[in-house]
Amino acid sequence: MRWAVVGLALAGCVAAPEPRMTSVALFDFARFEGAWQEAYTLGRAQSADWMVGPVEEGRLAMRVGGAESGARIVGPGRLESGVFDSPLWVLWADADMRVVVLAARDRSFAAVLHRGGQLSPDLMEAARDVLAWNGFEG
Questions:
Q1: What is the pTM of this model?
Q2: CA-to-CA distance for 60 and 80, rounded, in angstroms?
């Protein structure tokens, strides 16, 4: 009985695991090309327009606000860019590529990007749900 109480006490000391973070395995970076606007960000002020260039041999040009950098596709739905300190993962994109949710692997940054115009409330809600499921608060 004593060991059961000790075991329960120790179990209460174990920290809850950090939510897992997943990227979109079948994300097509060729469809990511073009102009994007930030609809929502975590980790820095929302302000940047994004421009993503065409994919060539696993690389693409990227401008975020005034910062320009090449980016390299490093895995399914994952890329590294000189603009960010940590690899960016695509957490979700709607089927029509109107909205993309990106996050830094170290969780220092996350963004909901859209193609411009009015972002529908249902797509924004879906994007926030994806961020929450991947462990982002805000």
A1: 0.84
A2: 10
